[in-house]
Specification:
The chain has 8 helices and 13 strands. By secondary structure, it is α/β, with parallel strands linked by helices. The chain has a single domain, classed as Rossmann fold (3-Layer(aba) Sandwich). Strands 7-6-5-8-9-11-10-13-12 form a 9-stranded mixed β-sheet, sandwiched between helices. The protein has a two-stranded antiparallel ribbon with strand order 1-2. Strands 3-4 form a two-stranded antiparallel sheet. Helix 2 runs antiparallel to helix 8, helix 5 packs across helix 6 and helix 6 crosses helix 7. The longest helix has 22 residues. The chain is globular and about 45 Å long.
Length: 282
């Protein structure tokens, strides 16, 4: 990879579809900062931090980063259910400027982990902090820790937590009960900025059916502004209604540049989830 004046020239797609007008727009290259964070995650963090994360999730995060850049999407990064921090450390690659990563988890208060998601007794604030100090010491000031159960938040509290900046990427991986999934999606939609993205973990998991049922209960009775657009490696990704069509087109253009052969072989497929056009990977 060649360093060309602060830009690492390894991002293959040079354009993406934007909006529904059918025209092609120039796509920004990945900044050196994001490229370096992604490479650091792949070489120094993945495999060293305990957690469950698809081996190609970094590709999805990279494409999402270019979509955020192209669309001018800004805001904090947040995760409900951090465990030891694996996915949040990857999402840190999306952070720009003074944006922060919010780690929201019960951590050592495992009596609040009513369904033992993540494993009984395995949440550890000490482990999370140790990983930051060891693997991301220069990023420490950008991580904020909130130790509480997500169902204890009111709407006003969650809005106040993120302030006027809101959230551009929200990972939901806390309690896997119906109540938690529905509650957490409801909270996330209140702070997600237009064009932001939510990732719901363990959608359609046979071991955690509460997540799927909670998702459909939310969509039926509480959803005001979200539509799913992607299912990939055990996570369902959603964005805001008005931006959904553009994000689907942009994401397909970006990910197809990585793995066009998989589109031709049928591993990627256009499907409908909760009435919304989505891409699915198998």
């Amino acid at each position: 990879m060649a360093d060309r004046g602060g830009v690492l020239d390894f991002w293959r797609p040079r354009w993406l579809h934007r909006g529904e007008a059918g025209h092609k727009t120039r796509m920004p290259l990945v900044t050196a900062t994001r490229a370096q964070r992604l490479e650091h995650f792949r070489s120094q963090i993945y495999g060293r931090v305990e957690g469950w994360l698809g081996d190609r999730m970094w590709q999805v995060v990279e494409v999402i980063g270019t979509i955020f850049d192209s669309n001018g999407v800004h805001g904090h990064i947040a995760e409900f259910g951090v465990h030891h921090g694996l996915f949040l450390f990857l999402l840190n690659a999306l952070r720009d400027g003074d944006e922060e990563c919010f780690a929201i988890d019960v951590f050592d208060d495992q009596h609040l982990n009513v369904d033992y998601s993540g494993g009984e007794g395995r949440g550890s604030l000490a482990a999370f902090l140790s990983h930051i100090e060891t693997l991301l010491p220069s990023e420490r000031r950008y991580f904020r820790i909130v130790q509480r159960d997500t169902t204890s938040f009111s709407t006003s509290e969650i809005v106040a937590l993120f302030g006027k900046n809101g959230v551009k990427f929200f990972s939901i991986d806390a309690g896997h009960t119906i109540q938690h999934a529905c509650n957490d999606l409801s909270l996330a939609q209140e702070v997600l900025v237009p064009g932001g993205i939510i990732a719901l973990d363990d959608y359609m998991s046979v071991h955690w059916p509460g997540v799927t049922e909670g998702f459909y209960r939310f969509m039926h009775s509480q959803n005001r502004r979200l539509k799913p657009f992607l299912y990939f490696q055990n996570k369902l990704f959603l964005t805001t209604l008005s931006e959904h069509a553009a994000v689907v087109l942009q994401f397909r253009a970006g990910i197809e540049a990585f793995c066009g052969d998989e589109f031709r072989s049928g591993r990627w497929k256009e499907v409908e989830i909760a009435g919304a056009e989505c891409l699915s990977f198998a």
